[in-house]
Amino acid sequence: MAKITKRSWAEPYRMKMVELLKVTTRPQRLKALKEAGFNTFLLPAEDVYIDLLTDSGTNAMSDQQWSAFMTGDEAYAGSKSYYRMEKTIQDYYGYKYIIPTHQGRGAEHLLSKIMIKKGDYVPGNMYFTTTRLHQELAGAKFVDVIIDEAHDPNNPFPFKGNVDINKLDALVKKVGASKIPYICVATNVNMAGGQPISLANLKELRKYTKKHGIKIIHDMTRVAENAYFIQQREKGYQNTKIKDIVKEICSLTDGATMSAKKDALVNIGGFLAINDWDIYEEARNLVVAYEGLHTYGGIAGRDMEAIAVGIVESLSDAHQKARVGQVEYLGAKMQEYGIPIVTPIGGHGIFVDAKAFLPHLTQDQFPAQTLAAEVYLDSGVRTMERGIVSAGRKPNGDNYYPNLELVRFTLPRRVYTQAHMDVVAESVAMVYENRTKIKGLKMIYEPKYLRFFQARFEQLK
Predict the structure, then answer these.
(1) pLDDT for 9
(2) How many CB atoms lie within 10 A of CB 336?
(3) pLDDT one-digit tens code per residue, 428-437
(4) What is the DSSP letter of 9?
(5) What homologous superfamily is domain 26-55+317-459 in, according to CATH?
(6) Is CATH 3.30.200.20 correct for 63-314?
(7) Which residues are catalytic?
């Protein structure tokens, strides 16, 4: 009789309702791909079998969240749902002043207009697409100050989201602290493969920024996942609750932008949180022009109720163990098949290294975009590109050429089963077996901003 050496775990929830999915044939998928210009963002969702495009707004809400929907106060001004959400954010994250927005980029927009002036520099631990665009539109230049390990998909360093203080210091000495309105610090860095920042690094950064009078603005959309990795990997935090680690992370920053569509487990909504009254006062004025009154900010009362519940649920240790555990399961399956992925495995998805997967394609032939299309063609699994297409163009019109050319397999929270993960891994393995036959793509339409959303491609001959 086999001896049990390791106990299995299961998700801390059960299903009450299911959504039926459409299963397509390969010819149907090829037709859909061509009509979408080989851009997975342009595929009709109905033609997708397993949708790993994003974890933004695609999560399954709990019965408690749906119940909270029914208590939503849709008053135009002074909704009690706003005050409930505000108190939850203050209690669990610790920020003083809260401005609701329709989603995270609404908060980025307000923050950039208020804090940035033309000619400023905004350092950050790797760029994010919408964040950098808002900074550039406001007249600033983004400067990457993440540690070098983050740009190496094979480096095993456990906190590849860390800020390189020496890089930041070099920028301060070059342009002066007065030209740096804030440093943008993301928890669980998306573009690096969902990689966390350590509390030790954040404490060191806080000490440096206080010395130079620079604010820290926290991109906290996946802060609970980052806290899970601190609990698992950082010395001294193994017995600390995730909710307490999150509170400590937030206490080391001056404000935050939040897309509640990720960690907070809702379909829409976000907020700007700030500790500075003057910034809050200006945001409270601007939100009326761009989002909605300062007590609803472009989202319904029912959504604010669901955010309040979702924040609490997201900070559960059991929830994060299951959430990150499913990501790790998919990553382990891919590694069994020899698929090159970013390691250590991150929090919200598996990032396949398209350069290593398709070494015969140049970056100008869009290997990550190509691979995302090929996976959909094989199985109906939708993923997304995080490489040269997402990186976009410099102000002078030249392409950015990021070191990381990745395909992101993003797992919505509480949506798919282990069997779905097996299907995904086997599909990627099948594409990998036939990788030498894959040809690249040529871009035939490019929008002005955030081209990865709407660009169109055709296959190279």
Answers:
(1) 81
(2) 10
(3) 999 999 999 9
(4) -
(5) Aspartate Aminotransferase, domain 1 (3.90.1150.10)
(6) no
(7) 76, 128-129, 219, 262, 386, 452
